[in-house]
Amino acid sequence: MAFTMRAPAPRATAQSRVTASRAGRRALVVKAQKDKTVVIGLAADSGCGKSTFMRRMTSIFGGVPKPPAGGNPDSNTLISDMTTVICLDDYHCLDRNGRKVKGVTALAPEAQNFDLMYNQVKALKEGKSVDKPIYNHVTGLIDAPEKIDSPNILVIEGLHPFYDKRVSELLDFKIYLDISDDIKFAWKIQRDMAERGHSLESIKSSIEARKPDFDAYIDPQKRDADMIIQVLPTQLVPDDKGQYLRVRLIQKEGSKMFDPVYLFDEGSTISWIPCGRKLTCSFPGIKMFYGPDTWYGQEVSVLEMDGQFDKLEELIYVESHLSNTSAKFYGEITQQMLKNSGFPGSNNGTGLFQTICGLKVREVYERIVKKDVVAA
Ligand SMILES: Nc1ncnc2c1ncn2[C@@H]1O[C@H](COP(=O)(O)OP(=O)(O)OP(=O)(O)O)[C@@H](O)[C@H]1O
Ligand SMILES: O=C(CO)[C@H](O)[C@H](O)COP(=O)(O)O
User: Fold this and answer.
1) ipTM exceeding cut-off 0.85 for this assembly
2) What percent of the chain has pLDDT over 70?
3) Is Cell division included in the keywords of this UniProt record (predicted)?
4) I need a labelling partner for 88 at 20 to 30 A (CA). Which of 23, 116, 197, 222 fits?
5) Ligand 2 atom 10 nearest Cα
């Protein structure tokens, strides 16, 4: 099968519209006046919440993400006004049977076409369109390619966005979802049994078969991420079985692309139990933490939330104590969380930190293109 690059698309489309600009201020972009393509990488194992995170992120930019119009119904791509999310499973060079014959998992580097991944991400970043293959998760086959045009924001999500050095160097911002084994297991069981009809035994054996390759090829990528959302068992309830979560937002210090979020006082170490007159907390309550740390020898700051909200609208109280969130107006985080309250993790730190990370994607985009995006 041949995959081709197409000629560059015009940088500004007919849809493009700059609605306001004032001397000394950056232009406001409503829909996609396209100057540069900013490329975001999102890495995680399967079943770790990548799709949920993508839905939260694209909701910040507005528009409804849809697969390419009139294309393959099993496409993994989601396109909205400003963002195009492509799934790196589409660069599997071995289909399901091919992996079986070779005795490799879908996580093994030999099951990916990194040359094509690099060439196509580079082309999209340069404003060109590409014909990208589709890995069909229904049939396990590699389908005929789909045309992808260069967007304002390209998100590449999947198992290996930072594995190949050439691809990694194309990324403007890197996010890793680091879900501890027990929680990953619980999420996967719940989804694969309820939605995909898999048995408990088959889920367990698939997780065990993937574990060595996950440890060798996927997990090490988290060293290179700019932001890591780490999901751990709660420390508020002994022997909890995943009902409550302790979630940490690990943020690299010193990036020119974004400012890390902080609680109360930048650089300090703070423990805060916000439950009181302004925040309703039933058992086990909420505990926030903020402070400096190191991550594989690099300076980071960590914002942490353990426990869950009872009333999502009261998140505004926590939000009002956070700084550098990149929110465009008071309460934007709470508004986003309420808008997406049906998504998993909406009452805990996973939803909160995914929303903050989405705002950071917007901040990175604005810094690179030097324009302000109007809040959705
Ligand atoms: N924050 C969360 N809290 C609770 N459950 C969650 C959370 N995020 C995801 N899940 C559960 O995990 C499942 C997988 O989530 P999602 O589809 O977003 O992951 P994914 O990484 O895109 O998976 P895949 O790569 O296999 O398609 C969801 O169906 C949901 O049941
Ligand atoms: O890890 C995965 C996605 O992140 C999948 O297991 C991989 O893409 C193979 O897909 P399938 O199991 O549908 O053949």
Assistant:
1) yes
2) 91
3) no
4) 197
5) 137
Domain 35-176 carries which CATH code?
3.40.50.300
pLDDT beyond 90 at 283? no
Integer Cα distance of 175 and 157 in angstroms: 9
- Tokens encoding 174: 């890197």
Between CA 211 and CA 108 the distance in angstroms is: 11
For 120-140, what is each residue's pLDDT tens digit? 999 999 999 999 999 999 999
198 CB less than 6 Å from ligand 2? no
Q: How confident is the model at residue 197 (pLDDT cuts 50, 70, 90)?
A: confident
CA of 358 to the centre of ligand 2 (A): 25
Q: Where are the domains of the chain?
A: 35-176
Is any atom of ligand 1 closer than 6 Å to the C-beta of 113?
Answer: no
Q: Say yes or no: CB of residue 187 within 6 Å of ligand 1.
A: yes
Q: Which atom of ligand 2 is nearest to the CA of 99?
A: 14
For ligand 1, say whether the CB of 345 is within 6 Å of any of its atoms: yes
Which one, of 302, 305, 271, lies nearest residue 286 by Cα?
305
Measuring from atom 18 of ligand 1, which residue has the nearest CA?
49
**Which protein residue's CA is at the shortest distance from atom 7 of ligand 2?**
106
pTM above 0.90, yes or no: yes
- Which residues, including other chains, have CB under 8 Å from residue 365's CB and lie 6 or more apart? 38, 152, 153, 373
Which of 51, 52, 86, 89 for mutating ligand 2's site (highest number of atoms within 8 Å of CB)? 89
What's at 303, amino acid-wise?
Answer: L
Q: What is the mean pLDDT of the chain?
A: 90
Count the helix, strand and coil residues of the chain and give each as a percent rounded to the nearest 5.
30, 30, 40
Question: How large is the average pLDDT for residues 6-21?
Answer: 36
